[in-house]
Amino acid sequence: MTGNDNKNNGAGTAPQNRTYTITQLCREFGVTPRALRFYEQKGLLHPARRGWTRIFSHRDRARLKLILRGKRVGFTLAEIKEMLDLYNIKDGQLAQLQLASRKMKERLVALRQQRVELEEAISDLERTCQIVDGMLKERLARAGGQS
Question: Which domain does 30 fall in, by range?
Answer without folding.
Answer: 1-75
